[in-house]
Specification:
Layout lengths: L8 E2 L7 E3 L10 E4 L3 E4 L1 E2 L9 E8 L5 E10 L6 E2 L7 E3 L10 E4 L3 E4 L12 E8 L5 E10 L6 E2 L7 E3 L10 E4 L3 E4 L1 E2 L9 E8 L5 E10 L6 E4 L2 E4 L7 E6 L12 E2 L5 E9 L2 E4 L3 E3 L12 E4 L6 E6 L5 E6 L4 E6 L4 E5 L6 E7 L2 E7 L1
Parallel strand pairs: 2-7, 9-13, 15-20
Antiparallel strand pairs: 1-3, 3-4, 5-6, 6-7, 8-10, 10-11, 12-13, 14-16, 16-17, 18-19, 19-20, 21-22, 22-24, 23-25, 25-26, 25-27, 28-29, 29-32, 30-31, 30-33, 33-34
Length: 374
């Protein structure tokens, strides 16, 4: 009777550990020797792929069904960090800030594509070195740096394309600053190069500067027109043309001496000569050009070459004159013109129209005659 009852005997008393980083997809079978059948290949109980530490059991079975077993340790230990896909990361450049970052990638031997992470707080507003971290599932880490450069090179842009002229009669004591908008800093207020007060025509340069020192400029014209010092000659009087509210006057002779009590808009000189007026308006004072008076005041001239009657009059009076065809003027006591016309005959009748009672003067060819209206 032939009866095989002896199991195969493993050729290696101890199987070496199998080490891998990611997985095991195939195993090389160990062998045993059977007393009857000779060499017997081991059969394992594992399921592929093997991705974690495992103890594999190898079974040796002869033709008679006799079996023996042997174990073998499989150790999965990933010790390789991810490798960056790009050897060197290009610099990131921005003018003001960076609010988001595009993550670079790396490739891991076990986990494939790994997306980098950083530990920065956004937004980033200054030059920074970013450290990108690539970590695989096993905790292996590699790093890569990238430079972030913040450099504002754009100057502020003026909010108004052109600034309106500033027009004053006398002086400018303060200026309203225009604004510009900066790409990084937002609203920016202009600063000027003027010295206040400004008393003559000036071109102001406004400068807009951002926090990075970028500047732009804009100009604005200041026009000082000067107060009105024109004088109208209305013989025998002078009248300052400036009749703005609050204006004051001081008449002077052209030697610069003030004339006592001559502070009205209209001035009646006591004698022939050249006169000017100092006009003060607000904080401004200016002096007119000299004006000449050749007719002495509003006093009645003797030996007049014309006569009038009745005088005093109720308004109507007759003029006898040798100045046929000459212009005539009727002035009030302040030298203001109240009526004018031309002599049409050597004897003509005139009437003071809508005139109050008082003293008036009839002037023909620089000859003056007083009229008293009752």
């Amino acid at each position: 009777m032939i009866d095989d009852v002896t199991a195969p005997s493993a050729d290696d008393p101890s199987l070496p550990d199998i080490q891998a980083e990611c997985e095991v997809t195939a195993l090389s079978a160990p062998t045993a020797t059977d007393n009857c059948d000779g060499t017997v290949n081991g059969v394992h109980n594992a399921t592929f792929p093997i991705t974690s530490n495992t103890t594999v059991t190898w079974t040796y079975e002869d033709i008679s069904g006799n079996t023996s077993t042997q174990t073998q340790n499989i150790i999965i230990d990933d010790v390789t960090a991810p490798s960056a896909d790009v050897t060197s990361l290009s610099d990131i450049q921005a003018e003001c800030e960076v609010t988001s970052l595009d993550a670079p990638t790396a490739t891991d031997n076990c986990d494939g594509t790994i997306t980098g992470t950083h530990n920065l707080s956004l937004p980033i507003t200054s030059n920074t070195t970013i450290t990108w971290i690539y970590e695989d599932a096993s905790g292996n880490i590699s790093t890569q740096t990238q430079e972030l450069v913040i450099e504002d090179i754009t100057a502020p842009s003026a909010d108004d394309s052109t600034l309106p002229d500033i027009q004053e009669e006398c002086e400018v004591t303060n200026l309203s600053a225009p604004t510009a908008t900066d790409n990084c800093d937002g609203p920016t207020t202009g600063t000027h190069n003027a010295t206040l007060p400004i008393i003559s025509n000036t071109t102001i340069t406004w400068t807009y500067e951002d926090a990075s020192g970028n500047t732009s400029t804009q100009t604005q014209e200041v026009i000082i027109s000067g107060i009105n010092t024109n004088v109208t000659i209305n013989e025998p009087s002078l009248v300052a043309d400036n009749d703005n509210q609050g204006v004051t006057y001081q008449w002077i002779n052209c030697e610069g001496n003030p004339i006592q009590e001559a502070t009205n808009q209209t001035f009646l000189p006591d004698e022939n000569g050249s006169y000017a007026v100092i006009v003060t308006e607000g904080n401004c004072t200016d002096t007119s050009e000299c004006a000449s008076i050749t007719t002495v005041g509003l006093a009645e001239l003797k030996n007049s070459e014309f006569s009038l009657y009745p005088n005093p009059t109720n308004g109507k009076f007759t003029v006898k004159s040798d100045y046929l065809g000459n212009d005539y003027q009727i002035l009030d006591a302040q030298g203001r013109l109240v009526q004018k016309g031309a002599t049409t005959s050597s004897k003509m009748q005139l009437e003071l129209l809508d005139a109050q009672k008082g003293v008036y003067y009839l002037k023909i060819n620089n000859t003056i005659k007083k009229i008293i209206k009752q």
